[in-house]
Amino acid sequence: SGALRELVRPSTPAPAFPSTISATGCYTDVVARTPAAGLVPYEVRAPLWSDGAGKRRFFVMPDGTSTIDFTTTGSWSFPIGTIFMKEFAIDDDADPSTPERMLETRFLIKRTANIFEGYSYMWSADQTDAFLLDGAEIGTIAMQNGAVDASGATKHRHTFPDRLQCLQCHNPAAGRVLGLQTGRMNTDHDYDGFVDNQLASLDFIGLFSAPLPSAPDALPRFPEPDDASVDVESRARSWLYANCAHCHQPGGPTPVTLDFRFEPSFADV
Description:
Elements: E1 27-29, E2 34-35, E3 40-42, E4 54-60, E5 83-90, E6 101-110, E7 116-123, E8 130-132, E9 137-148, E10 154-160, H1 163-169, H2 182-185, E11 188-191, E12 194-197, H3 198-204, H4 232-244
Antiparallel strand pairs: 1-2, 3-4, 4-5, 5-6, 6-7, 7-8, 9-10, 11-12
């Protein structure tokens, strides 16, 4: 029942990705990290833990007519050409005068209906630019506050994934695009001084292919793991969903049958 397949080089090779973050055009001021026009900022409830690194998240649509197919559960569907961008930075809490240090900027690009590409940029020591990586790396920076290594030095380690590793988490079972789903996007965001619910804002500016089915208060909202007003089970399930469910769910890339999605009840899984 098997088949023999041949790898064929595409007639039109994929365009080369810029070698520096400054060449991508995603910032109008690279040092200040001022996002370019068209980048839509967002944040998620129960964010993925990344060894204490803080994050900023953006996406940009391919043109002014594209829209997002909204669903109340599962991942939203974005048009071909959408680019997702995430920054990683570390703040040395032991020294408030020390500015936040940029570590990495990642991109996920939807090339076709089924093909996604991931790219990682490592920021330079002088914080003036970031450089495209060809493979996985581990970066280490000295800090006042961080993990102490065998030599007694205090350092922060950051893992930069290679392009295939990006797609291990951004896999088909998880819908490729992580975080941009109703239960995690149903929260307020500060749009340069104007605070509004993200679902309401995206709906207002016409980014959804159809109006929201109901007001945000009536739509799913995953609890924050540190919200003591919510029961422990719900908070634990929200954390497991954000950190584990992209692999641990039906059809996921793991060899065990665990389902850490938020919606199914324990009786169902």
